[in-house]
Amino acid sequence: MIILDIDGTLIDHVSAEERAAQQFGNVYADVIPRYSAATFPEVWREASEKHMAEFLAGEIRFAEQRARRVRTVLGDPSLSDHDVDEIFNRYLAFYEEAWELFPDVLAFLEHWSPNEYFVALSDGSQAQQERKLEKTGIRHFFQAVVTAETVGVGKPDARLFNSACDQVGVSPSEACYIGDRLDKDARGAQSAGVRGIWLNRQKARPVNDVEMIHSLSETLENRGLF
């Protein structure tokens, strides 16, 4: 079985978030004049990371991290829930429109699907991650989608990886996980007894204790990898 991270591995989340934040910033330029068009995407990313970390730590629910993101960026903690929802939904529409697969994903799934089960794993919300896979046309490849929202813990907690194995009745030692973050993905998988492979798309310095590839395409040339 192959377990695959979603954001940064299958779907180019960073580019989608940057494009969406740029469009969102343009729409609300009169409300947030302290940010320039050039700096707003970075401001949005920082707020997103801050409040997503609170969600993953179990401090708030997924919907609340969205609300806090809006209130933080707009600098208005008094915004009503209705206004927050309306504002965030504008961003969300831009974000969903920007979802795209990395170029190496479809060939990878088509190549390995005849012989392997696929499970998708994410720190995000169940509904949104399911929607990402549906909208990008790859949901049918996956036996299950496992998220921090439904399991109750995020990466690198071993329970999240073990839950992915449980979904299809496979032991951790029989599973392989591929993700783009060294510690949260590859080493998190290793801590659960799952073989972890670091998808080092950014070509960061390699490490000695973790298997590494730079592209999913590399696996097509190595039939003995799985």
Automatic annotation (TrEMBL):
Coiled coil: none annotated. It comes from the Bacteria. Its cofactor is Mg(2+). Transmembrane segments: none annotated. One of its GO terms (molecular function) is hydrolase activity. One of its GO terms (biological process) is small molecule metabolic process. InterPro entries: HAD-like_hydrolase, HAD-like_sf, HAD-SF_hydro_IA, HAD_sf. Keywords: Hydrolase, Magnesium. NCBIfam families: HAD-SF-IA-v1 (TIGR01549). This is Hydrolase. It comes from Halovibrio salipaludis.
